[in-house]
Write a structure and sequence with these properties.
alpha/beta; Rossmann fold; six-stranded parallel β-sheet; two-stranded antiparallel sheet; globular
């Protein structure tokens, strides 16, 4: 019998992308979505991103692969680097879904210490399935201390790495 859990994933898009890129490989987002569904019974996967107009096709692909994208407007910093911090949107959506009883358990995908309070809250309410952080060395100590339920995606490279199709 198939597990009846209705879990939701909350993905810090920038943290996931940068964390995996720093490891020297590229995440296959299509495979990652399948992994979340198969391994953690994720029925809804929110992906929080800063909106950049040149990435429209990528956003379309992500939606076709099953992600629900939540955009934040971006602004350039003093160095011209585009910033679109989505931390508060991720926390708010997780808490809204909690209070509306939309999921069985939540999966937080980030290594950012700003989510330590969310992980503690969900743990206290018995609603945290797991935290998936890109890598151990860049994962915040605060997040590591907030839960025992943490896995590092660095160890899943063979399963989740993007492999260029040969034509």
């Amino acid at each position: 019998m198939r597990n009846q859990e209705n879990n939701f994933a909350y993905i810090d898009g920038n943290n996931l992308y940068k964390g995996i890129t720093e490891l020297g490989w590229k995440l296959d987002y299509k495979r990652f979505r399948i992994f979340l569904k198969d391994k953690y019974n994720v029925h809804k996967a929110y992906l929080f991103l800063g909106f950049i107009s040149k990435n429209t096709q990528m956003y379309r692909d992500l939606q076709n692969w099953g992600y629900t994208i939540v955009f934040k407007p971006t602004i350039p910093d003093k160095n011209g680097e585009v910033k679109g911090n989505c931390d508060s949107e991720l926390v708010l959506q997780t808490v809204i879904d909690f209070y509306e009883n939309n999921y069985s358990q939540a999966i937080i995908i980030s290594g950012d210490g700003d989510f330590a309070c969310l992980a503690k809250f969900l743990t206290m309410k018995k609603k945290l399935k797991i935290v998936l952080a890109p890598q151990h060395k860049k994962c915040s100590v605060l997040l590591k201390q907030s839960t025992q339920k943490i896995t590092f995606l660095a160890g899943l490279k063979n399963k989740l790495q993007f492999k260029q199709e040969i034509k």
